[in-house]
Design goal:
By secondary structure, this protein is α/β, with parallel strands linked by helices. Among the domains are: about 1-100, Arginyl tRNA synthetase N-terminal domain (Gyrase A, domain 2); about 105-125 and about 460-575, Isoleucyl-tRNA Synthetase, Domain 1 (Orthogonal Bundle); about 180-260, no CATH class. The chain is about 50% helix and about 10% strand. The structure holds one RNA strand.
Length: about 575
Amino acid sequence: MREIVIALVIRGLERLAQEGVLPPELARAFAERSAEFKVERPREKTHGDFSTNAALVLARQAGMKPRDLAQRLLDAMAADPASGVRCTIAGPGFLNFYLSEERLRQLIPQILQLGSKYGQTQVGTGERILVEFVSANPTGPMHVGHGRGAVTGDAIARLFAAIGCQVEREYYINDAGTQIDVLGRSVLFRYRECLGYPASAPADYYPGEYVTEIARALIERDGERWLSASERDGTRATLERPPEAVIDFAIDWVMQEIRADLELMQIRFDRWFSERSLHREGGIERALSHLSQQGWLYEGVLEPPKGREVNSDEVDGRKQLLFRASRFGDDADRPLLKADGTPTYFAADIAYHFDKAQRGYTRLVDVWGADHGGYVKRVEAALEAMTGRKGLLDVVLTQMVNLTQGGKQVRMSKRAGTFVTLRDVVDETGADAVRFWFLTRSSGAGLDFDLDLAKSKSNDNPVFYVQYAHARVCSLEVKLRERELEDVAGDLARLTAPEELDLIRLLGLFPETVESAAWSREPHRVTYYLSDLAAAFHGYYNQFRILDEDPQVRGARMALVRATGRVIANGLDLLGVSAPESM
RNA sequence: GCGCUCGUAGCUCAAUGGAUAGAGCAUCGGCCUUCUAAGCCGGUGGUUGCAGGUUCGACCCCUGCCGGGCGCACCA
């Protein structure tokens, strides 16, 4: 719908350029959405369906008063009244556009014809985007925080795809490092215990029940193979360094669980990228030597952080390999090798992002938990150092999820082993509720997830509210058949009520909502839109009898209702939520 | 102390630099003999944390305070 107005403005700009009032490049910049002025939706209804601030923004450049320029632009657009667009000058120099009722109604057959494609555009054509998300350590089950990142990343990927971008989804498996060793030790500890050779617990281990499950599975496969003689007589503590095969087994087990959890929420990845593969296949050396060639690495001593107590054993003052992150906006330079000579997590992450950068994407999106927020700058710095490009990476941080039940907070702690897993929550409330709910807030805001409310079938539950609107549409279809009413196309001109025209306007807003949600990486805009649309539909449904006696009216209202149902279904699909036909 | 982030109705939160800042919950009051009341309609409720600045125009951008969250050496 917006294209109608955009086309008009472009025509006006081109004509003013011919007349020498405005520079000629403006029209193209505007068409490409790179101009400073734009077509927007006025908040106030009396200001029309669309407005543009072009005259306000360009007045100085044109050496004219805003209202005078607005008049010139208005004349130049030569909006033909027959086109169904009326245009007026208002306020300090806005141009307001009013679509005729006839023009509005034309949207209905358009939506019905486009079907599942309505809402999709091609404005992102040419973009190749990689969305990396979840990337939870394979050291235990996913919790609800991971779930929020999973749902957010997947929705962002869907949004980009909807505006014509090429999108890939990727999961970075942190299957290296000390936490993995801890997992291995934890499994071995339980393994011995299960075999009847109790040992002292390792200094650091995961207490969760799932570790014992892994141990039992290991016994089932390998028997007592991983017990040494000294362990059998209980004289030795659990191995410091578990065998690779045991670690592999544990990682595979956990990753299988994680994949199953993601599958439960309909989340699928195009690629699973292993951190260990970087270590094994020289990826880290390659990335570091690349950085080194550019001169961004050096041997130096790190300044201790200010204003914070640092243990004396933490500060060794040794010379080490550092990356000049501070040259690219980070707060400090960052170490790349641990004291034992193995790469830091950051070094591996540099290598991973180097790999991604070399694959030719136009844009990288990483979805991280907010607790990793302090890490953003250094990765951005590394990417800029490696590619010479700023702004290739967009990091979306998701804030914590606060789980409540019956008004009480449900405490989660991985260390204490008392946490509610994502799967618990999905089993309890369903994937639709989890997905929708996790997208009801901007990702930067904390989120309360009320288990009882998410399950409830009430109007307080936004998921059901929206899904119910769709079910109502379908229910009307059923009623239409049951009563054997003639299903005529109807006369759309019979849709004259303000409620009907407003509903159409709202339907016309959908593609713009999708576009802005995608570019801003804010899926919650779609969620809000759907709640608004559902509210408008419920109101309409309550006030007007859809299955009217008059077949022309009935047909027209059914067309509007079907279009509404279609948009709700398309919107829910972008969030990965189902659109049930009955509830 | 530094960095990131958030401060908007009693609560939880929206609002691509636009015109009179919106929803839901809560609260108060209405609507079922009709297509699903799993719904709808109406009322109450605001100095957008504070102070400056940029702009024709600021919840939004910049600066400084105040307050909450997260992070801050070779943990990931």
